[in-house]
Amino acid sequence: IEVVSIREMSRSVxxxxxxxxxxxQWRVKASxxxxxxxxxxxxxxxxxxxxxxxxYNDTARFSAALIAGRQ
Length: 71
What we know:
Elements: E1 2-14, E2 17-27, E3 34-46, E4 49-57, H1 59-70
Antiparallel strand pairs: 1-2, 2-3, 3-4
Protein backbone atom coordinates (compact mmCIF):
# COMPACT_ATOMS: atom_id res chain seq x y z
CA ILE A 1 0.00 0.00 0.00
CA GLU A 2 1.27 3.47 -0.81
CA VAL A 3 0.10 6.87 0.41
CA VAL A 4 -1.57 9.04 -2.23
CA SER A 5 -2.57 11.92 0.06
CA ILE A 6 -3.11 12.68 3.74
CA ARG A 7 -4.54 15.69 5.54
CA GLU A 8 -4.68 16.31 9.26
CA MET A 9 -8.21 16.65 10.61
CA SER A 10 -7.48 17.31 14.27
CA ARG A 11 -4.72 17.25 16.86
CA SER A 12 -4.86 16.96 20.63
CA VAL A 13 -1.78 16.96 22.85
CA UNK A 14 -1.87 16.45 26.62
CA UNK A 15 0.95 15.52 28.97
CA UNK A 16 2.39 12.28 27.62
CA UNK A 17 0.01 11.61 24.69
CA UNK A 18 -0.79 13.11 21.32
CA UNK A 19 -3.78 12.10 19.20
CA UNK A 20 -3.87 13.06 15.53
CA UNK A 21 -6.77 12.19 13.25
CA UNK A 22 -6.22 12.11 9.51
CA UNK A 23 -8.19 11.59 6.32
CA UNK A 24 -6.37 10.17 3.38
CA GLN A 25 -6.17 8.16 0.25
CA TRP A 26 -3.99 5.10 -0.24
CA ARG A 27 -3.36 2.91 -3.29
CA VAL A 28 -2.94 -0.86 -3.34
CA LYS A 29 0.19 -1.27 -5.47
CA ALA A 30 -0.75 -4.70 -6.84
CA SER A 31 -4.19 -3.73 -8.14
CA UNK A 32 -4.25 0.07 -8.25
CA UNK A 33 -7.37 0.06 -6.02
CA UNK A 34 -7.85 3.31 -4.09
CA UNK A 35 -8.79 3.47 -0.43
CA UNK A 36 -10.43 6.60 1.01
CA UNK A 37 -10.38 6.36 4.79
CA UNK A 38 -9.81 8.07 8.12
CA UNK A 39 -7.37 7.03 10.81
CA UNK A 40 -6.44 7.96 14.35
CA UNK A 41 -2.77 8.05 15.35
CA UNK A 42 -1.90 7.80 19.04
CA UNK A 43 1.60 8.77 20.14
CA UNK A 44 3.03 8.18 23.62
CA UNK A 45 5.64 10.76 24.57
CA UNK A 46 8.38 10.99 27.18
CA UNK A 47 10.92 13.81 27.51
CA UNK A 48 9.98 15.16 24.09
CA UNK A 49 10.49 11.82 22.34
CA UNK A 50 8.03 9.36 20.86
CA UNK A 51 8.06 6.19 22.98
CA UNK A 52 5.04 4.48 21.44
CA UNK A 53 2.83 4.65 18.40
CA UNK A 54 -0.51 3.05 17.54
CA UNK A 55 -2.74 3.59 14.54
CA TYR A 56 -6.45 2.85 14.37
CA ASN A 57 -7.74 2.88 10.82
CA ASP A 58 -10.85 1.93 8.91
CA THR A 59 -9.92 -1.74 8.66
CA ALA A 60 -13.07 -2.59 6.68
CA ARG A 61 -12.08 -0.26 3.83
CA PHE A 62 -8.46 -1.40 3.79
CA SER A 63 -9.49 -5.06 3.93
CA ALA A 64 -12.02 -4.69 1.11
CA ALA A 65 -9.45 -3.05 -1.17
CA LEU A 66 -6.81 -5.67 -0.41
CA ILE A 67 -9.21 -8.57 -0.97
CA ALA A 68 -10.52 -7.03 -4.20
CA GLY A 69 -6.93 -6.81 -5.44
CA ARG A 70 -6.50 -10.59 -5.07
CA GLN A 71 -9.47 -11.52 -7.27
